[in-house]
Design goal:
Blueprint lengths: L1 E4 L5 E2 L14 E4 L18
Antiparallel strand pairs: 1-2, 1-3
Length: 48
Amino acid sequence: MTLYREGAAPKHAATHECYYMPANNVMAGVDAGTVNAAMLDIFQVPEG
């Protein structure tokens, strides 16, 4: 999967790899491979 983030060069993410997604930043993940990808995003937000 290739990750495109505003203001940064594209980054390749391998299977089972984790990566940081900074707040207030436009980002897209593109699966251009031959195998389906599943992405799980976890967001930390203030309580309440």
